[in-house]
Design goal:
single chain, mainly alpha, two-stranded parallel ribbon, two-stranded antiparallel ribbon, 6 helices
Length: 176
């Protein structure tokens, strides 16, 4: 079942993802972990070898700069959370959502999340999009599924822009 609003959401997602693929091209582990400033959030291996993200509640002021690894973890965190709440049985705690540990594994992880999200969107009709039933347990407040789907693409686009900027800064500071 395809409806015009779902088709629009899918086209917008595809545009944001195409930009992400451009920035993922040639991304390597060193660039992912490059810290652009001394006050920086990244991902770090814990005692079990898992790559966990720096995080603080409430956020410090000023908010730290971030690494590409942290931004990509953040994408995986919110997408896992949204998918779990809207199309599953809930999501793992933030601390259990870890960075895969490298650029290639991260691209595959996020690609899988995007594919699952896209597949779920293709099944939605207008009544689904207008409903808050699937979104009721999200930690960000009550929104319709259409609002959540729009937010996912906006958030992805913002995070993709951050990845692109960090790549550009790294390239400018470390010319080949």
């Amino acid at each position: 079942m395809s409806v015009p609003r779902t088709e629009l959401l899918l086209r917008q997602l595809d545009i944001a993802w195409a930009l992400f693929e451009y920035h993922l091209k040639d991304l390597d582990d060193a660039v992912c972990l490059w810290e652009p400033a001394p006050h920086c959030w990244t991902v770090r291996q814990d005692e079990r070898g898992r790559w966990v993200a720096d995080w603080q509640v409430p956020e410090p002021d000023p908010v730290p700069a971030v690494t590409i690894a942290w931004v990509t973890w953040h994408i995986g965190y919110w997408w896992t959370t949204v998918l779990g709440h809207c199309f599953g049985d809930g999501a793992p705690d933030r601390e259990e959502i870890t960075w895969p540990g490298g650029a290639a594994a991260t691209a595959a992880w996020l690609g899988g999340l995007k594919d699952r999200w896209r597949e779920e969107l293709t099944r939605l009709g207008d009544a689904d999009l207008d409903s808050t039933e699937r979104t009721a347990t999200l930690p960000w407040g009550e929104m319709t599924l259409a609002d959540v789907a729009g937010w996912v693409t906006v958030e992805l686009t913002k995070n993709v822009a951050e990845v692109g900027l960090l790549r550009n800064l790294h390239g400018a500071r470390n010319p080949a």
